[in-house]
Each structure stands twice: as structure tokens, then as C-alpha cells.
């Protein structure tokens, strides 16, 4: 099993910064929309509300498949069965405006952004495709 993990480390008003680990080893930084799962229990409850295009996915563990993105026109990791979300991908981008709930990969060397994201997307996609070719399942933990 290939295990991805996003360890969220900074919760800003307009974005969330994290670290992606692969099988327990640091891989790159991540950028997401702001967190609205304030009690971090994996559901929107106690007055928490998802705002379309401006909310990161709930905390939890999800299965991942490699699928062609109709919008982005390339094979990307897609998270399955995310409560209140559909079509959550891991892909390149630089700011929270590029995400719509997806997880962006890159290097957090500029406040509120990730840079060099194409390189990190390509590396991640290659790792995931290799895992699938070996018959491994992929899962991601959002913590």
C-alpha cells in the first residue's frame, strides 16, 4: 500500500499550508483552501459549513485512484468518497484560487503560495502510477 499523508501545519484565513509525506517520508509542501472542519472530526457539524470553492476537505483517510481529469486533461490522483465533496484531485497550482478544494503540491517558499508545483505534481503522479502498476492501493490521510 502506498500511503500519502497531508499534515496540515498552518491554518490561514484564506489558505491552509501542509506537508505531504509518502510512506512516512517528507515529499513536498501542500496548499489548500481554508479549513472549516474546526473540530477536525472529518464532518461539517456544530455550525461548521462548507463554502463551495473555498473550503479544504475534511480531516480523515481516503482511498485514492489514478484517473483522467476531464477538466485538466491528464491523469491525476483523485480522492474517493470525501464527504460533501466530489472530484477532489492532487495537482499543480500556486494559490488557493487554483484549488476549488483540491490539494496543490509544491514548495511553500512564498507566503500563502506553493511554487515549482509542476515538478512536484509530475513526481507524485509517477510514484502513484508505479504503485498502481505494482498492484498497490493508494490511501491518503489528511491530518
Word description of this protein:
Helices cover 12% and strands 35% of the residues. With 143 residues, it is mainly beta. An eight-stranded mixed sheet has the order 5-4-8-1-2-3-7-6, covered by helices on one side. The protein starts with a strand and ends with a strand. The model has no long low-confidence stretch (mean pLDDT 96).
Task: Summarize, please.
The chain is mostly beta strands and 143 residues long. The chain has one helix at 117-133, and strands at residues 2-11, 16-22, 25-32, 60-68, 75-79, 90-91, 103-106, 138-142.
Task: Please tally the β strands and state the result.
Answer: 8
Compute the separation of the termini in Å.
18 Å
Could you report the average pLDDT, rounded to the nearest whole number? Answer: 96
Largest sheet: 8 strands, mixed
* Tally of alpha and pi helices: 1
H and E order: EEEEEEEHE
Low-pLDDT sequence parts: none
Instruction: Tell me the radius of gyration.
Output: 14 Å
Q: What keyword list fits this structure?
A:
about 140 residues, mainly beta, eight-stranded mixed sheet, 8 strands, about 35% strand
Helices and strands in order, then pairings?
Layout: E1 2-11, E2 16-22, E3 25-32, E4 60-68, E5 75-79, E6 90-91, E7 103-106, H1 117-133, E8 138-142
Parallel strand pairs: 1-8, 6-7
Antiparallel strand pairs: 1-2, 2-3, 3-7, 4-5, 4-8
